[in-house]
Amino acid sequence: MAKKLRNIFSEIIDFENLYIATNEAKKGKRYRRDVLEFNTNLEENLITIQNELIYKTYEVGRYREFFVYDPKKRLIMALPFKDRVVQWAIYRVLYPIYDKQFIYDSYGCRVGKGTHKAADRLQYWLRQVNRKPQKYYYLKLDISKYFYRINHKILLDILKNKIEDEDLIWLLDTIINSEDVPFGLPAGMEPDQCSEEDRLFDVGIPIGNLTSQLFANIYLNELDQYVKHKLGIHYYVRYMDDIIILVDDKKYLHEIKTDIEVFLKEVLDLDLNNKTAIRPISCGIEFVGFRVWATHRKLKKKTLKKIKRKFKMLQKAYSEGSKDFEEINQSVQSYLGIMQHFDSYNFKAKLLNDTIFRRDN
Q1: Which residues contact 229 (CB under 8 A, 6 or more apart)?
Q2: 208 exposed, middle or buried (CB, 10 Å; 0-12, 13-18, 19+)?
Q3: Who contacts 321 (Cβ-Cβ below 8 Å, separation ≥6)?
Q4: For residue 68, what is the enclosing H or E element?
């Protein structure tokens, strides 16, 4: 039986943990006004947070909402700096504990993992099965509106299976069940189609919260364990809600899809979307922004177009003087680094030949 977490709340509210959490929360944001204001009276603010948590008077601050369009339209919710400190304090204590329980081939929002490692793993497996005489197929699973549809009660029940600390459960419940801002979408709705009045309070976790990344992995770890230990699937890789399974029997793959669909609905209250597909691996597999084959990988066409647009924007910014050479070079080197992870020689050569940075006089 898995060891339960007891008396762990005290580690989260420990002053040193709150102090380190502050340093984590301000990385890359140290000159923002709210960060500067918080740090002006740092000790006093940390003691205030500590007391609010001890006496359970802590309330989550008002979210700032905005949309991002990379790679698809998402509703992002950003918290005030004080709340980000609390999130980091929780994350620093809980992440190392839960990370040990996750399967090896879960790659989203984990230290030492990420998109490139996920693509490497899939390609490694494709090379393995490509040497076998059987014809292999892949099942691509994509969960409909994953973050917006996570069921609060189920999430808290999963957390309670591991955590026997009433104070910590109170804090996690306070974050998950927001009394002021609903996070959830009705089934079948897009974020920009749904007004705040129509959003749901009992489902959904906010994209943008550090704890949401951890909660999302804890929630789908239930599926990981089911697939690996109940269904006995070897070639299974997940990056957040993007999942690939390789099997050499197309009929069996359809059975697996049905089993997973039932598990998701009955146990986690989730649905698959219409991107779910079964195809031969020879078609190449779209995964974490790449199309992957045993022999090579490419970036998706949409991503290539995005890189071209970014280079044009950099050209314009340099010519107008809004960015200096050091900033431009840093951005260019970043994109060249991305191109090392796929077969990009021709694309890179054409892009660099077509891109000339001139400063207008």
Answers
A1: none
A2: buried
A3: 359, 360
A4: strand 64-68
Please give the mean pLDDT across all residues of the chain: 89
Per-residue burial over 38-72, b if 16 or more Cβ lie within 10 Å, else e, is: beeeeeebbeebbeebeeeebebeebeeeeeeeee
C-alpha to C-alpha distances, 305 to 173, 297, 310, 311, 314, nearest whole angstrom? 42, 17, 9, 10, 14
- Which two tokens mark 211? 């704890």
pLDDT of 71 reads 61
User: Lowest-confidence range among 33-42, 276-285, 352-361?
Assistant: 352-361
3-state secondary structure of 59: coil
Q: CB within 8 A of 64, min separation 6: which ones?
A: 77, 78, 79
Both tokens of 44, joined, read 């006093």
Could you please report the per-residue DSSP string of 212-260?
A: HHHHHHHHHHHHHHIIIIIS--SSEEEETTEEEEEES-HHHHHHHHHHH
Q: Which two tokens stand for residue 134?
A: 């059987």
Contact indicator for 14, 167 with CB cutoff of 8 Å: no
